[in-house]
Structures are given as C-alpha cells and as structure tokens.
Amino acid sequence: MPDQRKKFRRKIRSLSIFNRIFLIIFPVMLVTLGIIELIMRWLELTEISYNFFLIFLIPVSFALIISYLTAKFTAQEISNPIKQFIESAKEIARGNFDHKVSVQSSDEIIQLSRIFNYMTLELKRIYQININEIIREKIKTEAILRNIADGVIVVSALDEILLLNDVIEDWFNVKEKDVHGCSLTFFFPELKFLTAKTKESAANDIFKEEIEIHPENNPSKIILAAHASKVMDNFELIAIVIVLRNITKEKEVDKLKTELVHVVAHELRSPLTSIAGFSEILKDPELPPVTKKEYIDIIRYESGRLAELINKFLDISRIESGQTSLTKIPVDIVTVISNVLAVNSHLAIMKHIHVVTDFVDSPPLVLVDPDLIGQVALNLFSNAVKYSPESSVITISINNIKNSVVVQVRDTGYGISKENQSRLFQKFFRAKDDKNVKDVEGTGLGLAFVKEIIQQHDGRLNVESDLGKGSLFSFSLPHYIPEKPIESSETVPLKIKSSHFETG
Q1: What does the alpha-carbon distance between residue 425 and residue 427 come to, in Å, rounded to a whole number?
Q2: In this predicted model, what pLDDT tens digit does every residue of 200-251 receive, in sequence order?
Q3: Which pTM value belongs to this model?
C-alpha cells in the first residue's frame, strides 16, 4: 500500500508539469482492497461546471424567481381585497353606511364584494328604520312629558338636570335649555333631600314628599306632591325621575271640608240648642201664657231658620250633582228682575234704603229658568240691603253688552277685602271684614247658590269691591237666538212697568 502511494505521487508530479489537475483519492474498503484515483484536468472540470450551471442552475433559478413572483402576485390578489374588506368593515362600524367596497379581482372576490355592499345597504336601511323609530318614540315621549299636567324632572346619578317639562318651566320660571346639565340643588333646592333619600333607598322604592313653592308670576303659594323613583341598568343607577303634582286645590278642598263641617255643626247647633232649651222650659206648668207664647215663637223661628239652612244646602247639592231639572224658556230679563223687586221691596223699606233701577229698553230675550234666575236676583238684592247701612243707595241696572244681557247690583255698603273675594262663593263662607257684618245673620250659602245657578245657565258671575266703598255684583246671560219667531205667549208678562222706584 505505501508503494502504491509513492507511485501515485510520481504520476501526479509528471501530469502537473503540463496541466492543472483535480485529484480525488478515496480508499476502497480501507486497507484490504486498495484505492480509487480520479484525476481530471482543471480546465475540463471548469467546462463541466459551466455546462452544468447553464443546463441546470439557471433554469432552476429562473423557475424559483417565477414561482416567487407568482406567489407574491397571488397573495396580493387575495390580501388586498381582504384589507379593503377590513377597512370597509371599520367604516361601517363607525356608522358610515354609504361606504362601498370596490375591488378588481377574481370573480369570487367581486361576487363577495357585491354581497358585502348589499349587506351594507341592508344594514343602512335597518339602521335608518331603527333610528326613525327611536326618533319617533323620543318625540312621542317628549310630547307626552311636555303636555302632561304634572311636572316632570329627570336628573342623572350625579344630580345633573337631563330633562324637565313645560309645567316645571312655568312653576319655577326656568327654561330647560338654560339649566340642562346643571346641578339640581342649585335651581331646585327644595328637592335636595328627596333625591338624597331616593339614592339611598331600594331599587323599587318610591319616595314622596310635599313641598311649597312661591312662583314669581303667581302671588299665591303652590303645594306640590313630589314622587321620586330610580332608573336602573344592570343594578347601576343611571337617572332619577321626579314627578311633581299640584295639590294646592286638593289641600284647599280638604281645608274647606273641615271648615264646612265646623260651620254646619255651628249653624245647626245654634237653632237646635235654642229649640231644645226652650222646649225644656215649656215643660214648666207654672209658666205664664205670655212667656209660653214668646218661647213658642222663638222655637218656631229657630225651626224655620234650621229648615231654611237645610233646604238651601240641599238645593246647592242637587244643583251641583245635576239632579235639579231646569225649565228654561225665553224671557225678558227686565220682567224677572222687576217682579223680584216688587215682591221684596219691603226689605229696602225697612232700612230706608233708596233703590234706583236703570234698565235698558227692550233687551234681547234670554233662555233661562225664570224661578231660579229670580232667586239669583233676590239673593243679590237681599245681600245688598243686608250689608248696607240705613238710608244708603242701591242701584240695579240691566244692559245689553255684546252677545249677553248683564245684570248689575251696586251698593254703597261695607265692602269686601280682596283676600276674601276669592272665597266669597264657597259654601258657608261669610266675609266679616267690617265689624258691622258680624251682627248680620246669614248662612253663607246664598252666593254659593247664585254661582251654581249662573253656571247652569252658561253665564258669568263677577264681583268688584273695596272695603268701606261698597260692592258691585253682576251676572251675564247669553242672548237667546230662536230658531223660529217667538210668540208673545212664550215670554213672562211684565208686571211692573216702572224702571225706577224709591223706598224709605
């Protein structure tokens, strides 16, 4: 084996003298068999390598480049539309339903873009329907809140004003646009404790509270019943709704009911006490006949006064409940008033009161129940006499004003204060501003009766008065417009021709 190696080296040296060679030697089965010698000139090897490069490597490289470019182009053909879809989806998520996907790609991608755009149009349509429905519901809710008779305030969990309706604006003299987002306690300090209690309460609890306000445009105080409840979302407080209801009239009615009970009890107790007392005295067999007659007259008088009180009260109740049937006929109001004055002139004569009448000539007819209107005139006339000093003047006039006949009763008596004028037509109320009025007998039912009768005739009742300067009571009745000419027999005949008479 060593000899073969030496021999091989000599051969290589002899070949390398003329050419560069490429030598590869590797053993065959190591030592036992021998070696394989591969000798090639370098030039030949270079030529073979070059040919191999031309034949194999260049086409393969070109194929790889083509494959890369093809793959890249294909990837872009797919990824670019996907990116456009993603951007379009983001635009739609932001509410831009007018955004369209426009791609130039394979038929499948184009078809997908068309479906995507159609879906966008459908979403826009549904969204618009929902928005319109929400807007309609919002407008409807606001309209209800605006026109509801109660006041409504909605505040956030932080007591910021979110909404209030027209009633609140009127009561508190504020505008929603000026207080929106402002603190509730700043503009409505009366509601501070109500909202605080509501926040601390359970979810379904409703807190109630009564508050008093004094509006700038209303001299009288207003009593409000406030109700507050929570608006929750997933156990989180998002708002508080406060409803305010005007209970001023209810409070006044309750007060009047209480006063009415006291007045009725007092008015009934006085005659009943007299009747019971004098009836007990009459049991005495030794009572002189003259005294006995005097006591019987007192009992008769008190019984009559008691019956009058009860009858008047029942009459008003029947009229208020609509149980009284009115027999309306066309009449000349001058006739009705003249008859009342003729029959009751003695009331003025007893106090030497001078009565002046000023009646318009031939006033239009009115459709009334003459008996009830006669009672109205009698009440006003008797009150004028009752609450006027002796030797004073009472003026009764009838005028034709626009579409109504107006009857006025003016006295120069004690007068009525402005505070009491608003309560003057309430049952059992009697104005006692002047010390002289306290001694005048009365039930306090006459003007309440007058008010109900005039209302039943679609008329109007009015009072003007100043303390110490007398009073002017007036009522108006609408003209009667007949469908056919009125026969003379259908009207009440005139019994008194004179339009002026004096007493005293």
Answers
A1: 7
A2: 776 667 778 888 877 766 667 788 888 888 888 778 888 888 888 888 888 8
A3: 0.47
| Contacts within 8 Å (CB) and 24+ apart, 199-206 | 199/157, 199/230, 199/237, 199/240, 201/230, 203/230, 203/232, 203/235, 204/229, 205/229, 205/230
> Which pLDDT does position 406 carry in this prediction?
93
What Cα–Cα distance (Å) separates residue 97 from each residue in 88, 103, 117?
A: 9, 18, 9
* 163-184: pLDDT as tens digits: 888 888 888 888 888 888 888 8
Residue among 500, 74, 208 nearest 82 (CA):
74
DSSP 58-126: HHHHHHHHHHHHHHHHHHHHHHHHHHHHHHHHHHHHTT-TT--------HHHHHHHHHHHHHHHHHHHH
Per-range mean pLDDT, top range of 23-27, 44-48, 224-228: 224-228
- Residue among 149, 179, 141 at smallest CA distance from 166: 149
d(CA 286, CA 284): 6
Task: Assign residue 435 a region (left: φ > 0; alpha: ψ between -120 and 50; beta: otherwise).
Answer: alpha
**Is the separation of the CB atoms in 475 and 455 below 8 Å?**
no
Domains of the chain, earliest start first: 148-246 (3.30.450.20), 250-321 (1.10.287.130), 329-490 (3.30.565.10)
